[in-house]
Amino acid sequence: MHELAITESILSIAEQSALENQGKKVTDIYLVIGQLSSIVDDSVQFYWDHISQGTVCEGATLHFDRRPAVLRCNTCHHQYPLGEILQPCPNCQSVDIYIEEGEELLVHHIDILKEET
Amino acid sequence: MPQRVEIVKRIMDSNDRLAQNNQALLDQHQIYGINLMASPGAGKTSFILETIKRLPANIKLGVIEGDTAPVTIDADKIVAAGMPAVQINTGGDCHLDANMIEMALAELPLEELELIIVENVGNLICPASFQLGTHANVLIASVPEGDDKPYKYPNIYRGLDVLIINKIDLTPYIDFRMDYFTQGVEMLNPGLKTFPVSAKTGEGFDAWIYWLTEKVKAK
C-alpha cells in the first residue's frame, strides 16, 4: 500500500524534470528498483494510471528495471544472489556478509517530447 | 523524437528532505527521537508504557501514535500514564511518513520535552522505506512471531539502529530458535544493538532504560 506514496513521488520527480527541460509530454519513465525495496510493480502501475491523468505524464509508460539483490561474503569474498530466502555464504558458511546491490529505488531517466519552437 | 533526460534521483528524496527538517527541529529543542516499528501485536504500546514507568522522572517524554483507524486507544493509554500524546490517523495508510511527523511535532510542547517516541503503524514492510527524522530506528520483534522474520523481511532489519526482542518470558513455550534468529539479524545488520526484554515482567528493561537515558542526556 505504500506504493501510492512511491508513485506520487515518481510523478512529482518526472513532472518537475519535464518542466525544467521544457517537456510538453513525458512518454517514458525508467525506474531502477532493487529486489530489497519491497515494491510491487503492478501496484505502482495501478496507481500510476490514476494519478498521472491530466498531468504532463498522462499515458507515459513505466519501465521497471528490476535489480536482483547480490550478496558478498566478507570472509571468502564469494558473491551470490539473495534467492528466495536469506542464507549464509554458500561457499564458506560465513554469516559475515554484506549486501552489494538490490536496495536501489530510483527514477533513472525519462523521455520527453519538447515544446514546438 | 522523444528526448532523453537523465535524472538518477532517489524516489524517497522528498520524504528524506522533510525528515532532515524534522531532525533539525528535534535537535534545536535537544530532543532525542525514536521511530518504533513492529508488526501488529508485538507489544509496541505495552513497551512504551513500561518505558514511561521506568524512565527517570526528570526525562519528559512525548509520544506520537500512528494508527490506520480513527481510534485513540493507544494514545489514551499514554495520556493516562501522564505523558503528552498526539494521534495520527493515517486513514488506512500502512506507514507514517516525514510529512505526518512534521504536523504531529507542531502539536507537541517541544520546549518541555527531552524524548519523543513515534509509534509507527504495525507493519514490517512499508515503514521501512520512510525515514521520519528521528535519531534511531528501533524494531520490536516478539518471540511468538517466529524466528524467521529477519529472513522474510530483510528490508526493515537493514535500516535499524536498535532491536528489541520482546516477550522473552514466552520463550520456554515456543519453538523460537534464538540462534537462527540472531544469525539472520547478523547477516543483515552486523553488530546491531539488541535488548531482549519482557514488557510484561519487566525483564531486560534496566539495560534498555540505561541506554535510552544515556542517549537523552547526550542531546
Question: What would your notes on this structure say?
Answer:
The complex is a heterodimer of chains A (about 120) and B (about 220). With about 120 residues, chain A is of the alpha+beta class. Chain A has a domain at about 5-70 and about 100-115: 2-Layer Sandwich (hypothetical protein PF0899 fold), CATH 3.30.2320. In chain A, about 25% of the residues lie in helices and about 35% in strands. Chain A is built from two helices and six strands. Chain A has helices at about 5-20, 40-50, and strands at about 25-35, 60-65, 70-75, 80, 95-100, 105-115. Chain A has a three-stranded mixed beta sheet with strand order 2-1-6. In chain A, strand 3 (about 70-75) and strand 4 (about 80) form a beta hairpin. In chain A, helix 1 crosses helix 2 (about 40-50). Chain A is elongated, with a radius of gyration of 18 Å. The N and C termini of chain A lie far apart (about 40 Å). The mean pLDDT of chain A is about 95. By secondary structure, chain B is an alpha/beta fold. Chain B has one domain (about 15-215): P-loop containing nucleotide triphosphate hydrolases (Rossmann fold), CATH 3.40.50.300. Chain B is built from eight helices and eight strands. Chain B has helices at about 15-30, 45-55, 75-80, 100-105, 150, 155-160, 180-190, 205-219; strands spanning about 5-10, 30-40, 60-65, 85-90, 115-120, 135-140, 160-165, 195. In chain B, strands 4-3-5-2-6-7-8 form a seven-stranded parallel beta sheet, sandwiched between helices. Strand 6 (about 105-115) of chain A pairs antiparallel with strand 1 (about 5-10) of chain B, so a sheet runs across the interface.
Largest interface: A-B, 38 and 36 residues
Tally of DSSP helical segments of chain A: 2
Elements of chain A, N to C (H/E): HEHEEEEE
What's the CATH superfamily of chain B, by name?
P-loop containing nucleotide triphosphate hydrolases
Q: What is the straight-line distance between the termini of chain A?
A: 42 Å
